[in-house]
Amino acid sequence: MSTPVNSLTQYIELYTTHKADINANSAPALNALRPQALSQLTDTALPHTDTEGYERTSIAEMFAPDFGVNIMRMNIPVDVAASFRCDVPNISTLLGIVVNDSFHPTATLHNKLHDGVIFGSLCKNATTHSELVAKHYGSLAPLTNPSVALNTLLCQDGVLIYVPKSVKLEKPLQLVNIFSSPAPLAAFRRILVVLEDDAEARLLICDHAQDNEQQYLASQVIEVIMGRNSIFDLYDIEDSSPNTRRHSMLYASQSDGSNLLVNGMTLECGTTRNDYNIQLPGSHAETTLAGMAIASGTQHVDNNSQVTHTGCSSKSNQLFKYVIDDNATGAFEGGILVAPGAQYTEAYQSNRNLLASTGARMHTKPQLEIYNDDVKCSHGATTGQLDGEALFYMRSRGIPESEARTMLMQAFMTDVIDTVRIPGLCERLHYLVDKRFQGGLRQCGSCGSSCHDTKTKQQ
Predict the structure, then answer these.
(1) pTM above 0.85, yes or no
(2) Is the pLDDT of residue 87 over 80?
(3) 3-class DSSP assignment, residue 428
(4) pLDDT of residue 441
(5) Which residue in 6, 232, 323, 382 is a FRET match for 457, CA 20 to 30 A apart?
(6) First CA to last CA across the chain, in angstroms?
């Protein structure tokens, strides 16, 4: 039982030793929560499989190795242009780049943003817009969660997205997370999204690692605060490396009439755990939560969801699909909670999985918790192999077995991809899934929305 304690202790010691430097290289609004985070981490441990009661990925093991942290905010060189060698048509977006955990705007980003819209460094904006950040930072992500507390303790920068009332962004925002370091590195990233009433925005996040041989660890907390009748899409594409460990936690709260779409897609990874916690306190709010995971070799992908309905007449639909090959493993635990006062709720959850080899493993656990009679809810999970009859039929028509298997796996992922609401991105994802199943997915192939505008400046 020593691993869970030691994996956290090394980071607490890092903070206590370098507290002055961490605070000096961040902002007061971020520093304000560190003492409380440290208090929550005292006499505790990071979650691991035995303590969480299911086949969830052990956070303690993910954080156990000795990763460096860029406390002094050293400028680590990164070849940004190398991250945009795209072989698919561009999507027009407003692009920002996070190198490890520091935000860098592209050269023309601020000139293209709508008046009043913020898309920039969390650290910088925590000073220039301190009241906005202080009001919302940490308002949804609970410090009682040790993983959130650790992220809060060491996070020095991240991204702030703010869309004022009634502003509807025509172009999607795109955030490219790039790992680049000469030594093993941990990045503690934070993304804060605030949409006022009737605002609308779409965000595409792409995760990459420039050096596939280097060891990286990503701790990411996303908070999404949605005003009345606001609309927000979040597409999170991970195309990293076998040596990247990632723990991403999303917390969202929806007001009356808001519409949230979250689609998390794992194309390439090492060990990945995504936690989704979505609250619907507003009436007539709607959530679509989708996920797609392709794992091969010894990769591991874990998605956990909790959607809580407390407002009346709200809707949620969860769909997660996995294709697991070789000796890879997958895990899914999904929950729906309908509170006593949440009349007329409609909530659905589905997890479907394909095991493409005898060594592949999948663990799944969908759950419903309902305290109201006036609801429509369902959940289900299936795990199986490729349709033998369909495979035989395709081979009898002259299609080689490998090609037939690829076509069936592509078709299996179609309904997850079709939830995408950004023009052009749906077609791009079909292409990338095709490349992935054929073993030819190229590093950073999922980007390309602003290949012509990769010049950055220090924010």
Answers:
(1) yes
(2) no
(3) helix
(4) 41
(5) 232
(6) 42
